[in-house]
Amino acid sequence: FQRGKVTALSKAADVGEEHLEALTEIAVGILQLVFYVFSLDVRVRTTYSLCQLIISLNEFSDRNGGDNKEYLQQVAFEEIYEILTSFTSRHRIYNLNDSVEVANIFIMLSAYLPSYFRETDAFESFIDETITSKLTYFGYISAKFCLLHCYSAQDIRVEKLDAQVENILTTIKKGVREDCEAYLMMTDYLASPNIALQKKRRVIEECLDYKKASNATMTAVLPKISFVDWDGAEIKHLLERKQLRSVYTWG
Quick one: angle between helices 44-64 and 66-90, nearest 10? Predict the structure, then answer.
């Protein structure tokens, strides 16, 4: 294939069977090269670029479907998972409280390849260790995001995470005004769609000393204050505009 022909075929609405296998193998070769580079530079900014690649990969495979889609997804998952296990072993990282790089890989796998990722030993052990360790803001939002995408809001581990955050907040109380991490936890806890209004009201009353929050007001306002996109609907749009990258760009 010439480069121009490959580009044209990959963007075509339909790809004939005679070209699909060849394009799939070209995609695998590109994936392997990209993941090799990623293994040498596991940073947050690199993860965002990798997310953009997987979005493109999924769009191509969705249009063509069949065994090729499953094959490409399997290759992508195996490559990322190998990088994940190697990185965590080399740096002795065991939970999502300890590394924003690992947290981002977890989020990426949970958002785009959940059916593969949720069955792994790493997923189970890291989530469990995150909940039982001293919970951080990044540990909380990463573990909860992964559980929501790989399982559901009804998973007992989601309840444990939320209960742990509620305990942190109602212990520190008005101290959230002076503790950035606790404040961020409170914001995303209050915006979480799975948490009952009475629990949110308790946190508002004890941490903010505000006694007049009605159900209607909380329902209308709280979802808009979150720093986290819990359902992941905005991830693709943010990546396409590259808004996530500028925060981590050296200038």
Answer: 160
Tokens representing 217 are 């007001």
**pLDDT at residue number 233:** 54
For the cut 80, the answer to whether the pLDDT of residue 234 exceeds it is no
pTM of the predicted protein model: 0.79
* Region of 232 on the Ramachandran plot (φ > 0 left; ψ -120 to 50 alpha; else beta): left
CA distance 19 to 51: 26
143-180 confidence digits (pLDDT tens): 999 999 999 999 999 999 999 999 999 999 999 999 99
Structure tokens at 214: 């009605």
Contact predicate 183/176, CB 8 Å: yes
Cα separation, 107 vs 33, whole angstroms: 22
Which carries the bigger pLDDT value, residue 244 or residue 83?
A: 83
User: Which element (helix H / strand E) includes 235?
Assistant: helix 235-241
CA dihedral sign, ordered 85, 71, 240, 37: positive
pLDDT at 9: 47
Q: DSSP assignment, residue 71?
A: H
DSSP string, 26-62: HHHHHHHHHHHHHHH---HHHHHHHHHHHHHHHHHHH
Say how far apart CA 53 and CA 219 lie, in whole Å: 36
Instruction: Return the structure tokens found at 135.
Output: 């919970």
By the 10 Å C-beta count (0-12 exposed, 13-18 middle, 19+ buried), 40 is classed as exposed
Nearest-CA neighbor of 235 among 147, 153, 159, 149?
A: 149
